[in-house]
Amino acid sequence: MAQAILDVMPGASTGTVQVSDPLNFWAGKRVEPRQQKNAEPVFEPATEGAFRPDLLFEYRWFRPLEKREKIAKLEVINNGKSITEALVDIDIAWQCIEYYAGLAGALAGQHVQLPGGAFAYTRREPLGVCVGIGAWNYPFQIAAWKSAPALACGNAMVFKPSPFTPVTAVILAEIYKEAGVPDGLFCVVQGGAETGTILCQHPKVAKVSFTGSVPTGKKVMEMSAKGVKQVTLELGGKSPLIIFKDCDLENAVRGALMANFLTQGQVCCNGTRVFVQKDIMPQFLEEVVKRTKAILVGDPLLDSTRMGALINKPHLEKVLGFVSQAKLQGARVLCGGERFVPSDPKLVNGYFMSPCVLDNCRDDMTCVKEEIFGPVMSVLPFDTEEEVVQRANNTTFGLASGVFTRDISRAHRVAENLEAGTCFINNYNISPVEVPFGGYKMSGFGRENGQVTIEYYSQLKTVVVEMGDVDNYF
Ligand SMILES: NC(=O)C1=CN([C@@H]2O[C@H](COP(=O)(O)OP(=O)(O)OC[C@H]3O[C@@H](n4cnc5c(N)ncnc54)[C@H](O)[C@@H]3O)[C@@H](O)[C@H]2O)C=CC1
Ligand SMILES: NCCCC(=O)O
Asked: Quick check: CB of 200 below 6 Å from ligand 1?
């Protein structure tokens, strides 16, 4: 099994913070991997592993820090997102755990009266051992979104973080232990595809909940199908955000920024196809470009920073490649889209890019059709509601969508007609734990968050009770 190591001693080639404790958690404690083979280095996105004595100093002080701050800082160092966002992610994670802890006591079945005094009742029962496989964009939050409903329904969970972000899931395991979760009920195993495959194929696993790319999601589904395991798939997206001319433009621009630039644009539900009604296109572009240029990119640990570093070098290059291809296909770069080198010497090798707005886009361009997973907004003009809904739905994805308008009837009509698991009206990318989150079409199925997720982590037993004699046909 592969072990990811965030090993950042001065002079070493990786990262800046040394994590010496094992990152696997098994039977109630951190454990070393059984095999050291295939260990992979983990780079700090903001520095590419440059020596940062300030962080080494700070790490010594992590232990006494309140847990929220400590987890958020580690998340920033490991993932590259801004500390402002990471703190919100941790808040959403604990809110999710509290929410399902509350629901656990409210799990109930149904009583059904039958003829002759007989009756039946249903019981919600656990599935057994569930596997959670996480992506790198919301490492701690994804671990919470999967484990909280799983444990609330009485299951055990083995969670495998992305090998790019191995550091924080084990802290969640320690928090559960501290809160009284029995040893072995939440375990963390590190590794990549090989480890994920072993987990999906294990005969004692009852369910797999996966967050990541569509191609890997298909593999997870295939492997799970062989064992008739239940699956939740939270996959990618290319979500539409539709801005009508009667919108509150100020809010629509804010919504477009929220829809595109959180976590350096590496968010599955991002509204990256921004359809703007032609009448307001000039005003929209002027404002959105002004605001995008003002986004402070840089050291993700600074409170003032609004955009940090992308997850790794190949991913940064892939995102920049999408921008180059967009230009070749006729898009106009209104701002950003280039590698960004902060002036701070310790960040010069970090995986930063300037947030990008693309104009002159057409529906057939690669940047409009494919998930870029980076800070790149494609703006597309439209004339009518009917036309824009048809174009918005012309995708194999269906994770999220958004509409900005002051016309309440139109807002609900558009929400009804959009083929997506979520539609935001006059906002975008808020994640209250009380509401279900998940996809249509190739963005996956099953749901996370909300009451309905109980159904995805439990099975229903029907108990039929006879009160009279058995009616015998033989
Ligand atoms: N929906 C979402 O939230 C996310 C979507 N993505 C999309 O996926 C693309 C690639 O990101 P990756 O992290 O490489 O995603 P990925 O789909 O390759 O990996 C996601 C998780 O699946 C695991 N995995 C990989 N192969 C597996 C296998 N054969 N069996 C079981 N588990 C396996 C990985 O180790 C990781 O934990 C991104 O560029 C983006 O388009 C990535 C992260 C999050
Ligand atoms: N907070 C939203 C998480 C969405 C995602 O997993 O990309």
From this structure: yes
Task: For ligand 2, atom 2, name the residue with the nearest CA.
Answer: 431
Whether residue 333 has pLDDT greater than 80:
yes
Please provide the CATH number assigned to the domain covering 4-33+41-235+440-460.
3.40.605.10
Residue of 213, 272, 310 to test ligand 1 pocket, by largest number of atoms within 8 Å of CB: 213
The CA distance from 15 to 42, in Å, is 7
Q: Is 469 exposed, middle or buried (0-12, 13-18, 19+ CB in 10 A)?
A: exposed
Report yes or no for ipTM above 0.90.
Answer: yes
Distance of CA 207 to the CA centre of its chain: 19
Q: Is the CB of 212 under 6 A from ligand 1?
A: yes
| Average pLDDT of the residues in 382-386 | 98
Topology given in CATH for the domain delimited by 240-425: Aldehyde Dehydrogenase; Chain A, domain 2 (3.40.309)
Confidence of residue 17 (pLDDT cuts 50, 70, 90): low
Proximal ligand: closest to the CA of 372: 1
pLDDT at 82: 97
Confidence (pTM)? 0.94
d(CA 321, CA 337): 10
Domain boundaries, the chain: 4-33+41-235+440-460, 240-425
Ligand nearest to the CA of 269: 2
- Does residue 268 have its Cβ closer than 6 Å to ligand 1? yes
Which one of the ligands is nearest to 189 CA?
1
pLDDT of residue 59: 46
Pocket of ligand 2 (CB under 6 A): 137-138, 211, 267-269, 431
234 classed as catalytic = yes
